[in-house]
Amino acid sequence: MPQSPSTNRRIVLAARPQGAPTLQDFRLEEAPVPTPSEGQVLLRTVYLSLDPYMRGRMSDRPSYAPPLALGEVMVGGTVSRVVASKHPNFREGDLVSGTAGWQDYTLSDGQELMALGDTAHPSYALSVLGMPGFTAYHGLLNIGEPKPGETVVVASASGAVGAVVGQVAKLKGARVAGIAGGADKCRYVVEKLGFDICLDRYDPQFAQQLANACPGGIDVYYENVGGAVFDAVLPLLNIGARVPVCGIIAHYNDKALPPGPDRLPMLMNILLYKRIRAQGFIILDHYADGFAPFYRDMSAWVAEGKVKLREDIADGLENAPAALIGLLEGKNFGKVVVRVAE
Ligand code: NDP
């Protein structure tokens, strides 16, 4: 669809998904580009981050944030260019990160914007130097507390959060086993990210291979996925293991609880007799105290080449729905970012 500068393309929630989202659950609309008032800036989206939490916002069920209303613009972290400014702190041309959502243009009063300055890699503000990187850092270091020589396991190991978890765990002296979907991702996780080993979750022998890879058990399991991966991990957890519960993407499209038998008593029994600490967290709660130290450490590690992240770039706002659907199916290879404009 040709796009004139007076038109704001935006993608809204058209329907609530039943199970996995489909393209029909999204709608591309056009609206006039808004004009900034005194104290506002007009932002042009350059990069849009796609993240698993967006699936939760599409459903009308209890969560840590209210659901999107039908017809509302899909939420999302963004890197944007200031194209007009009536705000004293921002000038035309400035690059900022914020939450403009799935649209070409938006207005902001500047409150939640972070100026990016001159940066060689602006999209990192949505990945390793932004929310997913902070999630990995906080969950691993403040809840997982890995010690040198301990075994850390993390799934979706080539993705935005998992890749950072494993590399930071290595920097802290742990032995790291990754889990990823397929041989290519596993090869990348070991050869490029420096994990000690990576297991393919699609391999029919996956559970046995994980047990073989962790002969001394698992001290920290950074939970990103749930499902069959968690089933394989659970019997391997050591006494005193820590489990930062970050996400359970294997269940985000579930329509109901899985059929029995009810394994809750078994889970609680293992937590009890092994004195395991499993702690959920939502990264939004930790920005005030935690973001600055994270940003300082991670900027240095990225600059020194100690932490790397592969990006999986989708071109064009109109391709965001398919890219989000793919992310939820494990089709992405790296952090999913939509390039909305040059
Ligand atoms: P990723 O870039 O890792 O992409 C998602 C990956 O999940 C897929 O590539 C796939 O990896 C894996 N996956 C998908 N379906 C399944 C399945 N059925 N079983 C196992 N793995 C599956 O996403 P993020 O790094 O952005 O997010 C990782 C997790 O962190 C998510 O659960 C997310 O919700 C959570 N999160 C939580 C936050 C918080 O505040 N608590 C903040 C940010 C993220 P593969 O095919 O390689 O296995």
- The chain-level mean pLDDT equals 96
Strand content: 15-25%
Order of helices and strands: EEEHEEEEHEHEHEHEHEHEHEHE
CATH class of the largest domain: Alpha Beta
Concise structural overview:
The protein is α/β, with parallel strands linked by helices.
Helices and strands in order:
Layout: E1 7-13, E2 26-32, E3 41-49, H1 53-57, E4 78-85, E5 95-98, E6 105-108, E7 114-115, H2 131-144, E8 151-154, H3 160-171, E9 175-180, H4 183-191, E10 197-200, H5 206-213, E11 218-222, H6 227-233, E12 237-245, H7 264-273, E13 277-280, H8 287-303, E14 311-315, H9 320-328, E15 335-339
Parallel strand pairs: 8-9, 8-11, 9-10, 11-12, 12-13, 14-15
Antiparallel strand pairs: 1-2, 3-4, 3-6, 3-15, 4-5, 5-7
This protein binds NADPH dihydro-nicotinamide-adenine-dinucleotide phosphate.
Residues 51-53, 132, 135, 155-156, 158-162, 180-181, 185, 201, 224-225, 227, 229, 246-247, 249-250, 281-283, 327, 330, 332, 335 line the site of NADPH dihydro-nicotinamide-adenine-dinucleotide phosphate.
